[in-house]
Structure formats: C-alpha cells, structure tokens
Amino acid sequence: MENAKNRNIPIASLVRWERNPRPQTSMEQNGDIEASIETKGVILPLIVRALKDSKEMYEVIAGDRRRTTVRFLADAGRWPADRDVPCIVRTDLDDDADALDVATSENLHLAMHPMNQFIAFSDMHKAGKTISQIAASYGVTPNVVQQRLSYAKLDPRARDLVLRDVRDLAWASAMTVASADAQSAMLDEIENDPNRYRNALEIQRRLSTELVPMTYALFDSALAEDSLVRRDIFDVAEPSYLPTAEFLRLQDAAVARLVDERRAEGWSRVSVLTDRTFDRWQYNDGIDDKERAEVVFVRHQTGQVVEYSGLALRAEARVNAVDSQEDHDAGEALFGDDDGLEPAATAGDTVGVRYQDGKATTAYLEKNRALVVQAMLMGSDLRLTLAVTILGLLSESAPKLVEGRTFSDMRDIDPESRTRVAVDRHMAAMTRHLKALGVTPEASYDDNMRSLMKGDQQQLLAIQQVLIATRVSTSMPGVERLLDVVGEYGDVPLSAVWSPDRSYLGTMPGDQIKNLAAEILPSRMAGKIKGKKADMVETVFQHIDDAFEDGTRFDDVERGVVTSWAPALLGGGSPGIVGNPFAQGDGDVLFGGMQEQIDEEETA
Q1: Cβ contact 465:354 at 8 Å
Q2: With 0-12 CB in 10 A as exposed, 13-18 as middle and 19+ as buried, what is 310?
Q3: 10 Å Cβ neighbour count for 534?
Q4: Segments making up each domain of the chain, as ranges
Q5: Residue 392 has pLDDT above 70, yes or no
Q6: CA spacing 20 to 30 A to 384: which of 159, 254, 358, 452?
Q7: Which range among 230-234, 270-274, 447-451, 478-482 shows the weakest confidence by mean pLDDT?
C-alpha cells in the first residue's frame, strides 16, 4: 500500500490517540495478552499516524491495548530498551473520520459497550461519515447506528449510569423521550435514592403527566406542530409523544367532532365521561337499538379516549340508590341493631402511636372496607355467601339485599388497587354468565326468568354470589362485623385482596406518609422518604408494590412485615395498636401463616 509503511518504533514514541472510540484499558484487563507479548513480542503491528507538528511521535489508531501492555512491561523492566514495536505508519489518515473507520474496523471482533459505540458513532458522524457508512464499518444495521446516536439526547449522567451497567438500555430509551429539565430532575432524585426510576416503566409513569403517546390520538398527527413532537426511535409501537396541554387541545376537538357524528347516526344519547365517573359494570353492551342504547366516550387520565357503542343500563343500575334508612334496615336484618355493642378500639386508646388515620384516610378506608368484604365474599366458598343470604331472608328487610344498587363505593377506589381488580374480575365473570344465558335489561321479567332457568346451578350460584356481595356498602351498619365474619370463615386472606394503593396513600398528609413508612418499611428505605408529597406517595407505593410482587428489595422477614400490615378499619393496625391481629406481645409481626396461604394459592 502506497500510503502505508512498515516501521519499528520505540515505545516512548507511541501515544494514545485522544479520539480512540474505546476507553483506555488497565493491565488487569490486558492480562490475557501480557504473557504472550512479553515472550513473543508484538506479532500484529500497530496502526499509527504521525502526530501533527512532530516528526518523532506517533498516535496509535488501532492496537492501543498492545501499546498499553508494552508500556507496562517497559516500565517494569520486562521489555528490552532496544526492542522497538512493529507498526504500520499510515499517511492517509489525516481525516479523523477515516481514522475512526480504521480503528473500529480493526476491533470488530471485540464487543463494544453501547455507550462506547455512541461515542464512536457520534465522532464519526461529526467527522462527516453517513449513517450507512458507519453501519458498514461496524457490520451493524443503520437502525442500530440511529439508536446509538439518539443517546445524544441523554444527560451525561444518564449515559454514565448505562455505561456502568447501573441502568439498562430500555431505561435509556425511555429517558430519551424526557426533556433535559425532566432528565436532570430525575437524575437528582436517583442520586439521593439509587432505587428511584430503576426501569423504563417507572420513567414512563413519571413522564405520563407531561407527555402523551401519539398512539392515543383521535386526530390526524399532521395537525400536531412538529417542533413539539418528541420522538423515540427505540419504541416502534409508540414512536412519538406530545406535551399534554397540546395533545388535549387537539383531542378535545376530535372528540367533539365524533360526538356530532354519533348523534347524526341516530343514537339517542351520546355522552363524554371520565374514567372516574364511568362505571362499565352498570351497562350491558352489544345493543343494536339506537333508540334504547347510547354511546359513551370515556376520557382516561393518560389522554386516551375509549368509545363504547350500544350500551344500555343494567336492570339493577336503573333502580334508585338505596337511601340511608333502607341501608340501615338492611344492616339490621343481618346483624340486629347496634345497641349493647362494645366500642371499637381506636388509635387514641394507645400510647406512642405514630401513624393514625386522618379524616380523608378514614373515609377512603370505610369505602375500601365494603369493597374488601365484596372481594372476599366473591372469592370464598359459596356456602358462606348463601349463609349470608339465608340470614337476610329471615327478616322483612331481606329483599333490599338483592335489589340493584349503584356501585359508588367501587368508583371511588383506585382502579388499579388489588381490591378493585379482584371485584372487577368477578363482576366480569358474572356479566359473561348473564350474556351467555341471554339475560338483558331490555327483556321482560318472564323472558329473563326463562333465560335464567336454562342455566345450571353453578352458573346461577356464581351470579347470586356476586349480586349478594355487591350489596355490601359503606353505609351499611355492621359492615365491620361482616368483615370479621368473612375473615374468619372465608377462603380469601385480606392480603390477597388489599394492599396500600396510591389513592389510599394520597389521602394522607406528608408527615403521616413518613410515619406509615417508618412503621412498615425497613429503616434504610423509610429514612429516604422525603420531598414533595406526590414523590413520597410514589416512592412508598413502589416499595410496597415490590414487597407484594416478591421483588428483590426485601428479605423474607421484611416482605412479611409489609404484606401482613393493614389499617385498623380493615382489621389490622399499626404495630402496638390495641386489637392488631398481627402483633405479638413483644411487638414482632406474625405473618408466616397468611403468606404461606397466599403462596399455596398462587402455586395452585
């Protein structure tokens, strides 16, 4: 090659090229070639170029590991002073882009960390190489090159976390969507608590209040101002996002157009509800009669809008809500009156209690208690539900227990809570049974009776079980005793249907969130609960969720403490509170039996 000349060069005349795409190695990393070079010398010549403004010094373009090893051996006196290093001097590599091409091609057999690839690809791109040329040099696809170049969007601290394998590539791809300010804020939080934002999902949750994926758009994406669109080339399904305010402006206009279109189609009613005001289980779907059915557009907090067509209120949803007096009568039918009852123990009866339920938390838990009873009844042996029914049938108020009611308690509970999910699952099963039997709110009483009589006993019992369970309400007297009953005789442990959810934590003031964390979380976690209330809620919830999902943050004992804890209104309480079923005299927590039961059910 006319532009290459073989020369033996003293090791003192060889220096590292500052734009070498690979990090400088240590002798621990070069141990695999040290013995070979000491005994046999450098067999494969180094590729070098003359250092600018110097006739005696050379930059090593390819082979810096060999240069580093020889330098070490020379300093240790294990490399003869008169022994030079074989090199190929290239005179055609004045252009750094060409030098990078040679450096990377020479090292194709060695794996490069993606962040080192980013540095190399970025340098080559800045030096004028096209994406296709870079891809050809490395033997990768152009898409890989584009992905690595997108790391330019990352805060340097984020790149360092990935380079040190503290965070993975999925995490990095999620971070590329965040603005510079958002990245900086999250990285500050990670520095204070290394367990914050550990994966892509946690990043996406954080960004969900700032950005909305364009896959949720009902409008033409061309309407979005291109400068506002954030693009994520890692995610094929959701390649772009829009700031929430701009997205909602365009989404509102699209929904308004769709409402007009549905009305023009002849639907008797078209409405727009939020996911908090829409109760899917109040409706039957698949109704073709537009005069008797409706269309509902449901707005979710994520920005997504879901359309439901052909909905008609179920029979029980059309019944007026049972008033407080009727609820009281229904409760007495099951449990008698409240005269002579022993008052329940309260947090105020004890000394030194740090965590106490405030007014908002108590109201939330009272609704949650009714839903917990529903979930535990639905999942228990049918004999328990039938026994509750028989007790009610012994009094005049019994019919109220099988009348329909609105599910206001359910609507106020966090949709992602374990309790809500458990009840939703059973409600869905009941709806499938009714649909399979042909029971509809539009049919006459006699027609529905004939349809029901076609079902087998198991189907009817399952439907009855759900209907009876959903009669349990917040305002029903004796609901706390019913919780004791289903806890004692039922098949479902409390921890299988309840855990502290975000909404529950959100009812507390900041100091109570810290107090709760101090009671149930290990001190290494509880001590880091600080900052804004929203951040504290999210951090505590993530820890609790990790415990219930058998995550790696807890050992078995710590996990048991978290999963066995429950507030007093749901049958538990803080360690030390009077009547806490989980506390021993010495303050230890008894959780083994409950956790073993859950494990057995999951295994089955």
Answers
A1: no
A2: middle
A3: 12
A4: 4-110, 163-244, 249-318, 354-498, 500-604
A5: no
A6: 452
A7: 230-234
